[in-house]
Amino acid sequence: MQVNVKIKRFNPEQDNRPYWSEHNVEVSETDRILDVMNQIKWEEDGSFTYRRSCGHAICGSDAILLNGVNRLACRVLVKDIGSNINIEPIRGLPVIKDLIVDMEPFFDSYKAILPFFMNDDPEPTTERYQSVEDRAIFDDTTKCILCACCTTSCPIFWTNGQYLGPAAIVNAHRFIFDSRDQGTSERLGVLNQVNGLWRCRTAYNCTEACPRDIPITKAIEEVKRELLWRKA
Amino acid sequence: MVTKVYTLNDAKAAAGNNFELYWWVFMRVSGLLLVFLVLGHIYMQNIAINSAEINYDYVVSRFSSPTWKIYDIFLLGLTILHGANGLRYVIDDYVKNLSTRFWVKTIVFTVIASIFVLGSITLWTFNFQEIGDVMRSVPSH
C-alpha cells in the first residue's frame, strides 16, 4: 500500500528551525513503522537519523511521536495507522538531530531515585525469599524499558523540565514496593519535594503512552499514598 | 541531580518538609467536601426554591441562623483555598520566570485573600437589620 509519511527533521549544522520532509513510499500493511523509517533512510534519504536497536519493543530506543501520540516505532504496524503517517521526535527533551533527542535529563531523573537494590543485611546463604504475593505487588513496574514515552508525553514535563517525570517514579515504585529492599525512605525523600512526586497532576498521558501497558498513573498514586502513610 | 535549587521555597521544599504532601491531602479532602457542599447549595438555592424569588429578606432570614453561616463559611473557605492552591499549581507549572512567578502569585493571592476577607465580613459582621431598615427607608422608584 501507498503511504504518505511526514517527518519532522532538524539538522543543527544546516537548519535554523525544524522542517517537515514528505515521503511517498510503497509498503506492506503488515510493516512496522520502523520498517517504513528504515525504507526511507535506506532508499530515499540516508541523512534521516533516528535511534533503533532490537526492533522488538524491548530496548526502548525508538520512541517517537507518531500521529500525536508517543509510540515505539517497532511496535506499531502500518495498518494500525493508515496511509497518513506523521513522525516527530518525542517532546520535552532537546533535539540533537531529526528524531534523536538528548536523553541525559531523562536519565538524570532516573538516577536521582536510586534505581538499584539496597539491603544492608548480611547476605543469606540462599536467595532472599519473596512470596509470590509480595512479588505481584510491583510486577507492573518491573516492565519499564526506559523508552521515555511516558515522561515525554507528560504535560508537566513539557512545561517544566524540572519534574522528575513518570518513568523515574515508576522505577522508584519498583523498589519501594519490593519487600527485600531497604532504601524506601531515601527514595521517598527524593520524591517528596516540589519537583518530585507532587508535580503529578494525574493527566493520565503517561498511562496512555506506555508501550508496556504499565498502569503508570496508578503506580504514581500508590507511591503518593505510601508517602502519606509513612509521614502521617 | 536534575532538581536544582532556585528559590528559598524550593530550597525549603527540597530539604524534605511535607508541604506538598499536606496540600495534596487537603485537595482530596476539600474536593470531596465541596462536592456535597456545592450540590447542597445549588439544591437549596435553585431547586428547592425558585431562585428568582430570593430577595433581601430571604437572605437576612437565612443568615440569622448560625447553621447557614457555618455552612457558608465552609463553602467560602474551602472553595477559596482549593481554588487558590489549584492556581498555585498552574502558576508553578506555566510561569517559568521566577520574578514573574513571584509577582503573579503575589497579585493572585492578594485578590483571593481580599475576596475571602470581604466574604467573611459580610457573613459574620454585616448588620442586616440595620442596613435593611436604611434600604427600606429609601423611597422606591
Strand sequence of the main sheet of chain A, in spatial order? 2-1-5-3-4
Overall residue-averaged pLDDT value of chain A: 94
What CATH architecture of the largest domain in chain A do you see?
Answer: Orthogonal Bundle
Give the topology string of chain B: H per helix, E per strand.
HHHHHH
Helix content of chain B: over 70%
CATH superfamily assignment of chain B? Fumarate reductase/succinate dehydrogenase, transmembrane subunit
What does this structure look like?
- With about 230 residues, chain A is α+β, with helices and mostly antiparallel strands.
- Chain A is built from 9 helices and 7 strands, in the order ββαββαβββααααααα.
- Chain A has a 5-stranded mixed beta sheet with strand order 2-1-5-3-4, with helices on one face. A two-stranded antiparallel ribbon of chain A has the order 6-7.
- In chain A, a hairpin with a 2-residue loop joins β3 (about 65) and β4 (about 70).
- Chain B has one domain: Fumarate reductase/succinate dehydrogenase, transmembrane subunit (3 helical TM bundles of succinate and fumarate reductases).
- Chain B has 6 helices and no strands.
- Chain B has helices spanning about 10-15, 20-45, 55-65, 65-95, 100-125, 130-135.
- In chain B, α4 packs antiparallel against α5 (about 100-125).
- Chain B is elongated, with a radius of gyration of 21 Å.
- The interface of A and B includes residues 162, 194 and 197 of A.
